[in-house]
Write a structure and sequence with these properties.
94 residues, alpha+beta, Alpha-Beta Plaits, elongated
Length: 94
Amino acid sequence: MLFSVRLISRQPHDVTAEAWQGIVADQLRATKSQYDQGKIRAIYRETGVGVLAIYEAGDAREMDQLIAALPMARYFAEIEVHPLWDMAPTLQGV
């Protein structure tokens, strides 16, 4: 099952720049791991906004677990997750 996932994080005021950079580095490693496992099919940086990713997960529960496992999960100001439907097969039949 494919999901469109938009993640927007904000650095809390009580987290130092050095600590935040450590969290960002951990997030990059975790994201790379999910990518290497095939859970992230595509990922795009939306400059000044956040990240848009196409995830593949077995179901909504697994998708929730993938997001919760990210080091920045508690710093996400916004999370949008939408299931996707591949319309290509339908369009090919038209």
